[in-house]
Design brief:
Helix content is 37%, strand content 23%. By secondary structure, it is an alpha/beta fold. Strands 1, 2, 3, 4, 5, 6, 8, 10 and 11 form a 9-stranded mixed sheet that branches. The protein has a two-stranded antiparallel sheet with strand order 7-9. Helix 1 links the parallel strand 1 and strand 2.
């Protein structure tokens, strides 16, 4: 049973898998630029072989460490962190991120000011300070088709065809969104309690488990908001990049699981088949330019 939530407390929940040095930088940034209210940090280490758990125990003894003997997967480990968290505000933070001065306070203020919002996404930056495009629409067939056949790249300002990756939006305004990455996603405990934690049926890499959570929040009537005033540096793909080519198969499997779950039954079969085909269609060019930055279609 999860402990009783403490009003005003921020719980920073971090899942780690073999990213020791980046994890150290992440925890150091939390100490250097802390939330100005009460906060706690929870690290769930998924059986890392690089000494990550030992580093946390030695250098960051104030952190609540959960050391799994093996890799339980992103969703299960996140749920472990949420289960022991005590905060009213729950920050899902990747181990390959670094918070910047004032970011946590502005992110919490953004969500607190919107009572209908169940979550708020930080403004992700690449290590060189450039924008990291981190928001998409839900994976509906038509926007995904426009991406797969290249229409969205040809007409980025045409919202009807570039909706999936929101190519027309510069990420510099506070707006309601559908699918932010969970790399730095703040959740309202009340909303999470209503819809439940992450679905552990998704692939171990976590592909589409965050999309599933956002989708359930929307269906329950909660909104999600993007907060450009809360920048966070993200070294994209530090964990999933370790999967190599398997990450593409996991991404495809995650998308198919999302559609089987939310669009079950025979009447949705054509939609599921179309999305599966679109996913595979986009798979090969992504593999050709593969790198740690490629995560999901």
């Amino acid at each position: 049973m999860a402990p009783e939530a403490q009003p005003g407390l921020l719980s920073v929940c971090i899942v780690n898998w073999n990213t020791r040095d980046l994890l150290a930088a992440c925890l150091a940034s939390l100490q250097a630029h802390p939330y100005q209210g009460p906060w706690e940090a929870i690290v769930v280490d998924n059986g890392s072989q690089d000494g990550s758990a030992e580093l946390v125990a030695r250098r960051f003894p104030q952190v609540h460490l959960v050391a799994n003997p093996s890799n339980r997967g992103y969703a299960a480990a996140t749920n472990q962190a949420l289960a022991v968290s005590r905060g009213e505000w729950l920050l899902l933070l990747n181990s390959d991120t670094e918070v910047l001065p004032g970011s946590l306070d502005r992110l919490v203020a953004c969500l607190a000011s919107r009572p209908q919002a169940g979550g708020a996404s930080a403004h992700l930056l690449n290590p060189d300070g450039s924008l990291q495009r981190s928001v998409r629409s839900f994976p509906y067939p038509l926007p995904m088709a426009a991406e797969a056949i290249g229409l969205a790249r040809l007409f980025p300002r045409w919202r009807a065809v570039s909706r999936y990756r929101l190519r027309y939006w510069s990420h510099d305004t506070e707006i309601e969104i559908e699918q932010p990455t969970s790399s730095a996603l703040l959740l309202r405990r009340q909303a999470l309690d209503q819809v439940g934690g992450l679905d552990e049926g998704y692939p171990a890499g976590g592909f589409y488990s965050d999309v599933d959570l956002c989708f359930r929040l929307h269906r329950a009537g909660w909104r999600l908001v993007y907060c450009p005033q809360a920048p966070v540096i993200h070294h994209l793909g530090a964990s999933t990049g370790q999967l190599g080519a398997a990450k593409f198969a996991q991404s495809h499997a995650g998308l198919c699981h999302f559609y089987r779950k939310h669009y079950p039954g025979g009447r949705h079969l054509p939609r599921r088949l179309l999305v599966a085909a679109l996913s595979w269609l986009s798979l090969w060019p992504r593999r050709a330019r593969a790198g740690p930055r490629e995560e999901k279609p």
